């Protein structure tokens, strides 16, 4: 009876995430249009950080409770899922255009900090000093986003278009709240199901918890792709992966040293490989085609088979 209740909660979480993502993308995109903010900036900041809230909550809580495998597994697993599964699915639905700055700056930066995380974890832990380095890099990233926003020319006519600000805010805030609540319900139910099946903490972190906390990115990016907001779909994933490493791991390490099991070296290399694969797929055409999305999904299937 208990396991049936967990499956029902899992289904409820999916429904909440789907509806919340629709409201949030609509509200965020409308706010971007009304205030003349590029969709790319919205994707890299508000949407990315908002949909990364579950990763932050789960990882920091796991670090405080001493469940290091869930902390690292959640972040590394989420970053792998974000690229190979979420962008793979979004591109399979419709080809995604990629902004030039994303190809030239954000994607290489994402690759660089993924390599940094791998290097920091080689000694078996993410220490306070490592956390300070990640936090400093996060401040640099925020300054870059600020400069990008300042370069944007605001069109007064564009500001007057679209939905009322109050309605946009209600949609964005209400959608985000529903996303976070739905993610919490989903993660809780999925974790209980996984424990009932006798799976390891590392596997739970890399797959079940990572998938659960990545569901906001999944539903938000797919919804953005279906609505034609390609910059939000791509910017959301790239920004979320950067946020996961620099803010979530960095903040967790500032609170407590996080053990980094040797087994995660392989998974972190997969995360680096996924980031490089994404960059190579869009480098020449600035477009993630359907074949690229299918290739990513195939790579994830191989990875999942390997860790099983």
Key words describing this protein structure:
single chain, 12 helices, 4 strands, two-stranded antiparallel sheet, 308 residues
Terminal residue distance: 28 Å
Low-confidence stretches: 153-161
Structural class: mainly alpha
Order of SSEs, N→C?
HHHHEHEHHHHHEHEH
- What is the count of helical runs? 12
Write down how many β-strands occur, each being a DSSP E stretch of 2 or more residues. Answer: 4
Shape: globular
Proportion of beta-strand residues: under 5%
Please outline the major beta sheet.
2 strands, antiparallel
| Mean pLDDT across residues | 82
Radius of gyration: 18 Å
Q: Explain this structure to me?
A:
The chain has 308 residues and is an all-alpha fold. It is 84% helix and 3% strand. It is built from 12 helices and 4 strands, in the order H-H-H-H-E-H-E-H-H-H-H-H-E-H-E-H. The chain has a two-stranded antiparallel sheet with strand order 1-4. About 3% of the residues have low confidence.
Quick rundown:
This protein is mainly alpha-helical and 308 residues long. 84% of the residues lie in helices and 3% in strands.
Secondary structure layout plus pairing:
Layout (H helix, E strand, L loop, with lengths): L1 H34 L3 H13 L1 H13 L2 H26 L2 E2 L2 H22 L3 E2 L1 H23 L5 H5 L4 H32 L4 H27 L2 H26 L2 E2 L3 H20 L4 E2 L1 H18 L1
Antiparallel strand pairs: 1-4, 2-3
Helix pairs in contact: 1-2, 1-8, 1-9, 2-10, 3-4, 3-9, 3-10, 4-9, 4-10, 4-11, 4-12, 5-10, 5-11, 6-10, 8-9, 9-10
